[in-house]
Amino acid sequence: MRDVTGVGSERFELGPSVAVTLAGRGHTIRATYDFLSQNLHDPDTTDVYTNNIAVAYDYRVGRHRFGADGVYHGRLPDRSAGTSSFKLGVFWSVDFERRRPGATGPAGVAPLAQAPSGVFSLAALAPGLGVAEAQDAMRLAGITGGSQQVGAVLYETSVIDIIDERQRVVLTQDRGTVVSSAVIIDIADPTDARRLAQTFERAREYMLARYGAPARTLEIGAFAADIEEALAAERFARVAEWDTPTGVLRLGIPRRLDRIVRIEIRHARDLPDLRKGLWSLESVR
Q1: Do the Cβ atoms of 131 and 171 come closer than 8 Å?
Q2: What is the 3-state secondary structure (H, E, C) of the chain?
Q3: Residue ranges of domains in the chain
Q4: ∠ CA 44-50-51, rounded to 5°
Q5: How far apart are CA 199 and CA 250, in angstroms?
């Protein structure tokens, strides 16, 4: 909610949003709803109401993953005709590189370098690790004071020194065990293509210096001011991926149902195909 006053710029904005994630037995359903009311105090100006609804479903069985997602965007000015758009998609993917539990990754891929004791390492916050053990490792790196969410612990801390943007470390958990870990880098102005590209390059430099060359990469399109639309239309992708003994470590700019543009580094036992943009940690906004 925002109330702006001043000559030529008086307006009231209300923008509630809701996000829901349900998961179990191979099924995952994610949904978001965002509403924005822009009411200008000047009676001669146009008020605008915007609705965004997005739903995604996927199901994994063995090497196969099936899914569908849909997005609705509606814009309704009070003095002219409204506009709306829909996008529906379905997919089926087969993981030909799926590893057995406890496997050390595909042949020919060197193990990730271990960070010195007391230095933060996302690779060390591995899926299957006890939450208490993971928090002990973070305390050794000087990271404390996490805030609890449902199924997750969030830490407001900067772990990549060469990046100035806000950073958060996240541990998702289930019954005292780490499900995944992540570093989220928020982007203040995603339309600033030059700064976004620079921030991503710095994150990639950090990962290359820490973990070496990635096992897989994907680059589609170029950084531009319309990156939000490009991500939604799957015209843009930046992903680099490393194999770990317990899963996969991925850096990229994922497509999100709420259309937030940010950089994420995730360590999980399993993530959707890197060619599908919907791999963000949706439960953390």
Answers
A1: yes
A2: CEEECCCCCCEEEECCEEEEEEEECCEEEEEEEEEEEEEECCCCCCCEEEEEEEEEEEEEECCEEEEEEEEEEEEEECCCCCEEEEEEEEEEEECCCCCCCCCCCCCCCCCCCCCCCCCCCHHHCCCCCEHHHHHHHHHHCCCCCCEEECCEEEEECCCCCCCCCCEEEEEEEECCEEEEEEEEEECCCCCCHHHHHHHHHHHHHHHHHHHCCCCEEEEECCCCCCHHHHHHCCCCEEEEEEEECCEEEEEECCCCCCCCCEEEEEEECCCCCCCCCCCCCCCCC
A3: 2-94, 122-268
A4: 160
A5: 16
pLDDT tens, position by position, 213-246: 999 999 999 999 999 989 988 899 999 999 999 9
Contact 86, 70 (CB under 8 A): yes
As a residue count, the chain comes to: 285
What is the mean pLDDT of the segment spanning 109-119? 62
